Hints:
By secondary structure, this protein is α/β, with parallel strands linked by helices. The chain has 17 helices and 11 strands. The chain has helices spanning 14-26, 39-49, 59-68, 79-88, 105-113, 123-140, 149-157, 184-187, 192-195, 205-213, 215-228, 266-274, 288-291, 306-316, 320-336, 342-354, 364-382; strands at residues 5-9, 29-35, 53-56, 75-78, 94-97, 117-120, 144-146, 167-174, 235-239, 245-251, 256-260. The termini are far apart. Magnesium ion is lined by residues 148-150, 220.
Amino acid sequence: MTTKNLSILGSTGSIGTQSxxxxxxxxxxxxxxxxxxxxxxxxxxxxxxxxxxAALVDENSAKELKIRVADTDTKVLSGLxxxxxxxxxxxxxxxxxxxxxxxxxxPTLTAxxxxxxxxxxxxxxxxxxxxLVTTNAKAKGVDILxxxxxxxxxxxxxxxxxxxxxxxxxxxxxxxxxxFGKTREELEKVTVVDALKHPNWSMGQKITIDSxxxxxxGLELIEAVWLFGVHPSKIEIVVHRESIxxxxxxxxxxxxxxxxxxxxxxxxxxxxxxxxxxxxxLTGELDLTKLGTLTxxxxxxxxxxxxxxxxxxxxxxxxxxAFANSANEQANFMFRQGKIGFLEIGELxxxxxxxxxxxxxxxxxxxxxxxxxxRNLVIKYSGKQ
Length: 385
Ligand code: MG
């Protein structure tokens, strides 16, 4: 299905604003926008793109927005139900979900229910509720196109293969984040400011901290399991400092196909919208001779334990990934508030992941209950409020 009309969830964030740049360039209409609480930016977006509906999760911000855009035709909604209404917006054929965290799960399921094509940047949706998302999408015949740069790369490398039978291995690349090469002792005292200095990508705060702990790569491993139907043992993480190779796949004949490009999210965003076509983009050209060298390393699994915690969680299945994800959302937040140390994030995620109940299947309510439970356990184990 060709994209013509978008609903963008998380429109004021990094992916959301770049999606709107892409919409402007490609001439897509925008019929719904949602965000958490950024009134100023969503007001400007409403004035430019004139969506039918807009939603802010935060009730007070939504009230203010309603007053500010009273002179427009845009209907303002609030809360998670407002975001779900944006996901269901009848004029939109494609929903870009760039909500941060597992809060994006219900909107994703709503979009699937309404038969929308989904450009998914909200990886936590697949980590927490991968079974529900993939089962429902299959039943409804809905396409889920990855926006995450690594998964877009893998998806691009798989083009031309009718099945993934010949797929031997996925090589998931990681920049290594700002703390590559550091020891556990050196990481004991790092600050939020240190952790927010990502070498290659400019992103929101939550994901930047996830990159520093390398939890982001663990989440991406789980995301790849669901998107591409591969066993977790078939995904190898390779540290590639320059973020030029966005990931690769190895086939049974040992041929390796990689996707390269400048680290710019507008490439994967646009490909998710134009697939299977390609059109000119706003991204610069890659000049390999300017780069000269590309480097690769094995990850340091002892220092950055979150990668293997996620591998273990998805190998166990059930609600283990949901517990790991929600524990991380809470611990990441508490680190940013200065309440816990950097290394405590991984320790708390590991402990809480191990507390998940053993179940084979789950409902959406189970995932949201797991979220509350995992967050409470992090608070309890950290000894902080
Ligand atoms: Mg990524």
